[in-house]
Amino acid sequence: MSDYQCLEYKKVGMVTAIHLNRPDSLNAFNRQMRSELLIALEHANQDSDVRVVVLGANGRGFSSGADLAEGFLDGQTVEDQILDEYGPILSLIGAMDKTVIAASPGVMAGVGAAIAMRCDLLVMAETGNLMMAFSNVGLVPDGGASWQLLRYLGYQRCYALMAEGGRIDASICLNAGIANKLAPADQVLDTAMTWAEKLALRAPVALREMKKLLRQAADDSYDETVKREAKAQKICVETADAKEAMQAFFEKRPPVFRGE
Fold first, then answer.
1. What are the phi and psi torsion angles at 104 (to 5°)?
2. For the domain that residue 56 is a member of, what is the CATH number?
3. What InterPro entries does this protein's entry cite (predicted)?
4. Mean pLDDT computed over every residue of the chain
5. Is 1 a residue whose pLDDT tops 60?
6. Domain check: are 177 and 234 in the same one?
7. Which residues contact 202 (CB under 8 A, 6 or more apart)?
8. 113 and 173: one domain?
9. How far apart are the first and last CA of the chain?
10. Cβ 194 vs Cβ 248: under 8 Å
11. Global confidence as pTM
């Protein structure tokens, strides 16, 4: 689609690739890019032919965070901006039926890192890193970054990272579970696309229900999760895809999933 100024949007088979495209600012989020990203994600989510979304970036990094030079709208506070302009993006990534893979070719900082961590999966450059430099300018992390990092790193490591305005390398992100895969910087996007194409061949309904279960499980009790799993399993068992998988098993062939 050619209507975007700050993004590139491309559909390849059952995968949509959305690339942040402000490389001169290290893909800092200005108002235009926030608006376009929400529109692009909504478009991909509404496309029934799309099963996986890759959220990548052009240039040396995923994003340096918010574009601090832009400022706020008249009467707008920073709280308003976070909730009104970033909030819908973060909510949609978590709620959409599609699997979303973030692909970071270098640094991911601030709210850019928060958006990458909000995705279902993450591929990072081997030489990349995650930065939480908020305290260097007297600010706190936002975009849900503190929620994410606390769960990955534990309180002490998370607090040290945030308080010192520090960074953690890609290898540490991989070991902590923040990143799923590492790749050379110039192969990050291709690695994410190859992974997306493989996932797109799997049963869409099952992947959708898995995502819902995992997103909810952090807030549910064990017993509540068992009940949710049972309901999700009922949905999956009744799909044509489940019947196709069983047939393919007996016929000793790969299943062909249609999302039905």
1. -110, 110
2. 3.90.226.10
3. Enoyl-CoA_hydra/iso
4. 96
5. no
6. no
7. 257
8. yes
9. 28
10. no
11. 0.95
Query: 51 with 165, same domain?
Result: yes
pLDDT band at 118 (very low <50, low <70, confident <90, very high): very high
Say which residues have a Cβ less than 8 Å from residue 129's Cβ, sequence separation at least 6. Answer: 107, 108, 167, 168, 169, 170, 173
CB-CB contact of 67 with 29 (8 Å): yes
Looking at the fold, whether 165 and 189 belong to one and the same domain comes out as yes
Q: From CA 41, how far away is CA 52, in angstroms rounded?
A: 11
Query: What's the CA gap between 204 and 14, in Å, rounded?
Result: 11
Give the E-state strand segments of the chain in sequence order.
Answer: 7-12, 15-20, 52-57, 99-104, 107-109, 121-125, 129-131, 167-169, 181-183
In a domain, 77, yes or no: yes
Same-domain pairing of 63 and 128: yes
Cα angle 5-8-13, degrees, rounded to a multiple of 5: 150
Same domain (yes/no): 154, 213: no
C-alpha to C-alpha distance for 12 and 171, rounded to whole angstroms: 30
pLDDT of residue 2: 61
CA distance readout (Å), 158 to 10, 170, 192, 237:
36, 16, 27, 41
β partners of residue 104: 124
List the structure tokens of 87. Answer: 């909030």
